[in-house]
Amino acid sequence: MNRLVSRGLAAIACLCIAATANAHYLWISVAREPAENAGTHIYFEEAARPGDGFHLDHFLGKSNVWIRTLEDPAPAPVQAIEVKQRDKRWMRVALPSADEYSVDAYGKFGVYAYGQTNVLLHYYARSLSVTSHDAMHELGRAEQMDLDLVPHDVGNQFEFRLLWKDEPVADRMVFVRGGNGFRKNVKTDAKGRVKLERPSTGTLTLRSSVEFSTPGEEGGESYEKVRHNITLVLSMSESADGP
């Protein structure tokens, strides 16, 4: 292989890596401390942390956000506001009224070109904090959202089900990240499930997607596919009780 071809392949590989690294998703992070930064923060970034918010205009004033607690499990819609700090930009809503909660969000990005293919992008995000099996059961399903990652605790394992309009989605990759460098990429089984060992404390982040070859038009732009992306931030302050 000559040097020119090698350099070309290397450049393509670098572009592919960069494209993967720069993928953005909707994320929700709840912070109670420090007081000046307290709130429920909604980011459209590579991870659940503030960034430049370059694409945030696709969601500002257009996204749906709900807060659910054990005392009030019905989805309660809230309005997100824009936050700017120096070169960072994101959205924020109020803190949940209880320590156990689910904050859920949905937003439509619009049409984005992946090479020669135009894709209509939808984003879903959840932040779930529970300390018991009962709380996970009550708050685990965000019924107001078409796409969901629903957690269950089974013995010393977590089971997550990927659902599209209440139907399990098989053979889709779920990307799981946790503390101490934990990383796992696993496909859903025939019942839309993935399983992993349950940490006693800490936070897990998961993301997945479904995609349909359904052409159409959005905002005057045509597209060939529709992709729905979801993230889940699951916080466990202690081991959930068994069933």
Structural category is: mainly beta
Summarize the main sheet. 8 strands, mixed
First-last Cα distance: 60 Å
- β-strand number: 18
Topology as H/E string? Answer: HEEEEEEEEHEEEEEEEEEE
Residue windows where pLDDT falls under 50 for at least 5 positions: 1-21, 239-243
Share of residues in strands: over 45%
Oligomer status: single chain
Question: What helical percentage do the residues reach?
Answer: 10-25%
Task: Tell me about this structure.
This protein has 243 residues and is mostly beta strands. Residues 1-21 and 239-243 have low confidence and may be disordered. Strands 4-3-7-8-18-15-12-13 form an 8-stranded mixed beta sheet, covered by helices on one side. The protein is globular, with a radius of gyration of 19 Å. It is built from 2 helices and 18 strands.
Question: What topology does this entry show?
Answer:
Elements: H1 3-21, E1 25-31, E2 39-45, E3 64-69, E4 76-78, E5 81-85, E6 88-93, E7 101-114, E8 117-130, H2 133-139, E9 147-154, E10 157-164, E11 167-168, E12 173-177, E13 183-187, E14 193-197, E15 202-212, E16 216-218, E17 221-223, E18 225-236
Short overview:
By secondary structure, the chain is mainly beta.
Key attributes of the depicted protein:
disordered C terminus, 8-stranded mixed sheet, 243 residues, 11% helix, single chain, disordered N terminus, mainly beta, 4-stranded antiparallel sheet
